Amino acid sequence: MIELIGAGKDYPTPQGGAVPAIKNINLQIREGEFLGIAGKNASGKTTLARLLNGLLLPTRGRVMVSGMDTRRRQYRMEIRRKVAMVFQNPENQIVNPVVEEEIAFGPENLNLPAGEVRRRVDEVLELLQLTEFRKHAPHLLSGGQKQRVAIASALAMQPDVLVLDEPTSMLDAWCRKDLMTYLLTLNRRRGMTTVLITHNMEDLAEADRLVVMDEGKIISDTPPWEVFGRDSLPGMLRPPDISRLVRQLNERGGSLDPRITVRRELVDALCW
Asked: Which residue range or ranges hold the ABC transporter domain (predicted)?
């Protein structure tokens, strides 16, 4: 689906030099998986995210999307249709005064027939439970609702991959939980390849794989529970409370499965 081969990205300095943001990244993102990417601030997460659909081009190495090199200009439109991005602050993406107009904006720019645009808008409004807000002004919605509008706008393009960069960082706990439920539903029931980039490990508890970055490099690529069980993590990364509790119980003589990362799994194990 997406492959990074020795990918590196430098940013210029005022003195005329260059600072590497990511270094020698080798990574495969498989069709249908839920991939988490975690790391402290300035670890290279956002730079990596923007390489995935050609918003940034690698200084070294290659980024391939379904066999298309992001450096090739003739592929960029198709790559950006295949790989949709949702950023940390939805207000930076929303440009239309009405929710349904915002969602229709991308498909209309593909010159699709009006009936197809309407079908896509109706579909994603229902999927993300936004139908009642279709005529609302986006700036009057809650933070969680705005983020859902941004995701709906991305999904209306019918991408193969959804990349989300810190989508829950501006949300309260309730909105964060709701948003993660929507993302997991998209992945598990619809097969949407999902890449979630965050420093909040709670959001990554149900990912298929968890990549950890530090100082522009990948330092780990394993199932989440293996990362959560480590004695130390870079920077401010902190294992989910459930994983920490499982570990503490096992240290006190318990025999819980260390792969337990979410509450319902722990409840099932304790009540068995």
From this structure: 2-240
Query: Going along the chain, which residue ranges are E strands?
Result: 2-12, 18-29, 34-39, 60-65, 68-69, 83-86, 161-165, 193-198, 209-214, 217-222
Extents of the domains making up the chain? 2-223
Look at the chain and count its residues.
272
pLDDT in tens, 3-37: 999 999 999 999 888 999 999 999 999 999 999 99
Tell me how far apart the alpha carbons of residues 9 and 47 are, in angstroms, rounded to a whole number.
8
Count CB-CB contacts under 10 A for residue 26.
12
Instruction: Decide if domain 2-223 falls under CATH 3.40.50.300.
Output: yes
**pLDDT at residue 142 greater than cutoff 70:** yes
In the DSSP assignment, the letter for residue 234 is S
Q: Which long-range contacts (CB under 8 A, 24 or more apart) does 252-258 make?
A: 258/225, 258/229
Distance between alpha carbon 127 and the CA centroid of its chain, in Å? 18
pLDDT tens track for 42-58: 899 999 999 999 999 99
Q: How far is CA 14 from CA 19, 96, 143, in A?
A: 11, 36, 36
Q: Which of 91, 99, 139, 143 is nearest to 122 (CA)?
A: 99
Instruction: Please tell me the distance from the alpha carbon of residue 19 to that of residue 47, in angstroms, as a whole number.
Output: 13
φ, ψ at 10 (rounded to 5°): -110, 150
pLDDT at residue 236 above 70? no
